[in-house]
Amino acid sequence: MRANPWLALSIIEGEHDAHAAALTEGPVEVLTTVPEDLSANPTAP
To answer: Predicted confidence band at 15 (pLDDT cuts at 50, 70, 90)?
Structure first.
């Protein structure tokens, strides 16, 4: 990821007729620590 900071991510949920998918891709940044606003409240949007 550090050499080529680009990510393609697929999230699939469900099976057969009742399923959904989220696809995204784009530039990323590699973090070595969790940002404080995320670690303080993991359910925050």
So the answer is: confident
Give the Cα separation of 40 and 26 in Å (integer).
27
DSSP single-letter state for residue 41: -
* CB 28 within 8 Å of CB 7: yes
Find residue 25's DSSP bridge partners: 8
Task: Tell me what pLDDT residue 9 has.
Answer: 93
DSSP conformation class of 13: E
pLDDT in the model for residue 18: 87
For 4-31, give one letter per residue: b (16+ CB within 10 A) or e.
eeeeeeeeeeeeeeeeeeeeeeeeeeee
